[in-house]
Specification:
By secondary structure, the chain is α/β, with parallel strands linked by helices. The protein is built from 13 helices and 16 strands.
Length: 426
Amino acid sequence: MASTRDKAGRPIVVVTGRGIVTSLGAGKTDNWAKLTAGQSGVRNITRFPTEGLKTRFAGTVDFVPVEPYSTPALSEQLAAMAAEEAISESGIGSKGDFPGPLFLAVPPIEIEWPQRRELAGASGANDAVTYQDVLRAAATGRFAAMHPRFQFISVADHLADMFGTKGSPISLSTACASGATAIQLGVEAIRRGETDAALCIGTDGSVNPESLIRFSLLSALSTSNDAPQGAARPFAKNRDGFVMAEGAGALVLESMEGALARGAKILGVLEGCGEMADAFHRTRSSPDGKPIIGCIRNALADAGLTPDDIDHVNPHGTGTPENDKMEALGMTAVFGERAKTIPVSSNKSMIGHTLSAAGAVEAVISLLTLDHQRIPPTINYQVPDPSIPLDVVPNVARDAKVTHVISNSFGFGGQNVSLVMGREPA
């Protein structure tokens, strides 16, 4: 029997369950079929009026009804769907009795415009409504339901109750690296011997007017309103920004020893995690690329692998001019000449950027790539950028031998995490 510990003597962490929801649909089967067919889930926004907005489309999950809509309500529902699929595939524990902790990546939560307007309307103020007026309306007790819903911990608390996870659930937000951070925390907890299993989820249901406007003010979003499905163009010369999206990804992680003891099917290995912070700018990467380079190298070192061992890169690949350029710089520095021949493909070209969920969603897709030995394409890649000399898998899926994949998540504010996943234990 293969050793259940890695070269550093730590418990090997394996995946026994995967769940996913994106703008393409719910579940691994539907998503994988559409991803490998090169379909786009990006569409015009119908959830709220978009007249006058610079960007009027997103990768929304409109097939999950949440009334009244709010970011935490939809984020919770998406997370529950992904977790249910992952736990079912894993076959771990029993219904409502998951034998480990919950690590949840969730978007920042604050009271949203509809609820603010409701409070303002009940304030009794005749003229301009002040913040104090809103506080007085909230203090009446008539809006008590808003309090538990618009707390950062609310989503994790509800999910912990739903699935019976153990210990205090962890809610975290590390910008667009959040989903990968949740997985990293699960890996580290198992390696430390604190648990034999962990439920790791990244979720985001935050396509709302305020979020859209905030990203527009940062000049981060694509404005290709005439052709939404062609708007996400990672690594292409004509890329003009990312596409906001919603979704959730969930993994059941276990120690290899525990998984084998209960006869679980091993679906992949979380071989390494790396991180490196970059405080250069609130949105831009350090121009020398050192934090991105260091993040990837840390993940490889943690996995006990070399750059030559990596067969595929699932990049952050947002489609913003700055991010794609810096990620290509980082990969070239790490992989050298091999960077030109390692297949690279951004899932965001089809599902959009799922923000807090992205690292978890893309980890699930990376594991499916390992399973099926097929790399989904980067669609909308018609105009290669000569300054990005990478082997972008263009427009059509590619069959390939993939034993080790690295998935990058680089968030605003310089929060960088890379995950290395393998097909089977060494």
